[in-house]
Protein 1
Amino acid sequence: MKAPPFAYAKPRTLEEAFPLIERPGSRILAGGQSLIPSLNMRLSSPQLLVDIGGLARLKDISLQPGGLRIGALVTHAELERSEQVRKHVPLLAEAAPHIAHPAIRNRGTLGGSLALADPAAEYPACALALNATMVLMNRKSERKVPAASFFKGLFETDIRPDEILVAAEFPKVERSVFLELARRLGDYAIVGLAGVADASGKRIAFFGLDSKPVLATHAARAKSVEEAKALLAKDLHPTGDLYNSPATKLHLAGVLLSRAWNTLSKPH
Ligand SMILES: Cc1cc2nc3c(=O)[nH]c(=O)nc-3n(C[C@H](O)[C@H](O)[C@H](O)COP(=O)(O)OP(=O)(O)OC[C@H]3O[C@@H](n4cnc5c(N)ncnc54)[C@H](O)[C@@H]3O)c2cc1C
C-alpha cells in the first residue's frame, strides 16, 4: 500500500523545527522505520512530516560527569558499535543487536524508539532499568523526565505535542544483563529482561509483558533466585498475546530472571 499524501519539511536547526511541529496535523519523522510503515498501512495520516534528520545537535554521544548523554538521532547501529556505550552503558550495546535487522538498525534511532514506546521494544526497558532521563525541548525551554514517568502506557509517553525528544541521559552502570526470548532473532520480544546492578542494588525491567516496561521491584530485593522467581507474580501482571497466555509469559519471565540472577548478584 502507499502512504496518504502529506507535506514534507526538513528543518536545519531546532529553532526552525519548533514552529513546524507546532502546526496541527504535523508529525516528527526520525529514522522512519516505524512511522513510514504505519503510513503505508494507512494507520496514520499526518498532514506534515517534519524530518528532524538534519538536526546535527541530536547526533552526539557525549561523556558527562554522571554518565552518557546520547542524542535522539543516534541510530541503533551506532549505539551497537560505540566504544563509549560499550564501556559506560553496556546494557544498550547488548540490547541493540536484538532490534530488528541491520537495514533497520542503520536508520532507526534511539529517540524514535523511546518516543514510540512500543511495549515490546528493547530501549524503553533499558531506559527504565538504567533510571535514564529523557531530555525534552520546546521552543521556550528544556525539561527532563525520568524514564519511570516518561513511559505512560501503550505507545504513550510524556512528550507534549510541541516538544522534541532531543537526548536521553544514561548513568554509568557497568554490570548489566540483557536477555530476550523471541521467535526469531530480530523479531519483537515475547518477553525480555534488562537488568543492572550496582552498590545500591538491582534494577530489573521486563518488557513484552504489559502495555509498557515494568520494574520488578520485589524480585530485585530478593535474597535468592528462588525467592526472586516467587516474587515475580507480585511485580508482573502479563497480558497474553496471540501466541502466549499470561501464564506462559510469567513463566518465561522467571526463566530469564534465573539466567540473569548470578550476574546481577555478584558482589561489588
Ligand atoms: C520489520 C521491523 C522490525 C522491527 N523490530 C523491532 C524490534 O525488534 N525492536 C524495536 O525496538 N524496534 C523494532 N522496530 C522499530 C525500529 O526500531 C524503529 O527504528 C524505532 O521504533 C523507531 O525509530 P525511528 O527513528 O525509525 O522513528 P520513526 O519511525 O521516524 O518515528 C517513530 C515515532 O516516534 C516519533 N519520534 C521520532 N523521533 C522523535 C523525537 N526525537 N522526538 C519526538 N518524537 C519522535 C515519530 O513522530 C513517530 O511517532 C522494527 C521495525 C521494523 C520495520
Protein 2
Amino acid sequence: MNSAVAAELSVNIGALRLRNPILAASGTFGYGLEFAHLVDLNRLGGFVTKGLSREPIEGAPAPRLYPTASGMLNAVGLQNVGVRAFVAEKLPVLRKFETAVIANVFGYALEDYAEVIRVLEDAEGLTGYELNISCPNVKRGGMQFGSDPVLAFEVVGAARKAAAKRPLWVKLSPLVTDIGLIARAATEAGADALTVANTYPAMALDFRTGKSRLGNPTGGLSGPAIKPITLRLVWETRKAVRTPIIGLGGIETVEDVLEYLAIGASAVQVGTASFTDPRASQQLVEDLQRTLFDVKWFTLNEIRDRFPSENS
Ligand SMILES: Cc1cc2nc3c(=O)[nH]c(=O)nc-3n(C[C@H](O)[C@H](O)[C@H](O)COP(=O)(O)O)c2cc1C
C-alpha cells in the first residue's frame, strides 16, 4: 500500500487525540506489558489497563473462564495488583511506549474511586481514566453504581473532582432499562466520553453436579454473542447525548469495527478477541487501514454516524 495515500486514522475523543480508533479493552490485555512481546503497542490507538482498586485483590476462585456459544463467561473477580503497585511497578515500564494508556478504575464506595484517581493523578505516563461503574456499592446495599442515575451522577462527580489533570471516560453497565438516563447523568457529572459497554451478567451450569461452570455462581458474558445487543446500546446512547462514545462488545473483524463507528462510536475496544489471538487489536488496525484504502475513504469521517440517529 502506498503510504502517501493511506487513510488518516486518527480520532479525537473530546480534547484527546488518538493515533487510531482501536484500543485493547480492560481485563483482556493485562497491564499492556504482558502483550508487548507479541503486539506493537505503538501501533494501537491505546489500551485500557486491568481494573485498579485501592488495595490489591486476589480475585475469584477457579475456574474463571468458560466458553459459550459465540462467546465466553468470565468471573475473574476484579483481581489486580492495586493502584500503588501499578504506579510503582508497571507505569515506569509503560512510559517508554508511545501509546495511550487508560487506567480502568473501580471501587465499592465513592471514596474508593476518588482515592484510586488521586494516587494516579500524581503519577506520570498515563493518558486518562476509565471508570468501571458496573460495581456494587457496598454502602447502598450492593446496588450497582451504573444502574441508577443518581448513584452514577455521584460517583462520576466524585471521580471528576479527583481527576483534574486527565480525561475521564465512564464505562456503562449494559444491565439497565434506559441507558440514555445513565449516559445523561454521567455526562452532566463531567464525563469526557462514555465506554459502551461492560459484560452481561450470565450463568452456565453442569446439570449433573448442579454446580456453576465457574468458581462463582455468575459471570460476565462477552464475545460475538453480545455484539448485536451492545450495538443497540451504542445507538441508544448516541440518541441521548453528544458525548463521544467508545464502543465495545464482540468485536472480531474490521466489519464489526466499522459497524460500531457507523452507529455513533468515535473509537472501539477489543476484548475477548485478544484471548483467541493476542494480536487481534493490532491486526484490526492493519485491516482498517487496508479496508479504507480499498473503498477509497481517506478519513474516518466518511463512516462516522452513517446510521442516522435523531441526534446527529
Ligand atoms: C476476562 C475478562 C476480564 C475483564 N475485566 C474487566 C475489568 O477489570 N474492568 C472492566 O471495566 N471491564 C472488564 N472486562 C470487560 C471487557 O473490558 C469488555 O467490556 C467486555 O468483555 C466486552 O467486550 P468483548 O466482547 O470484546 O470482550 C473484562 C472482560 C473479560 C473477558
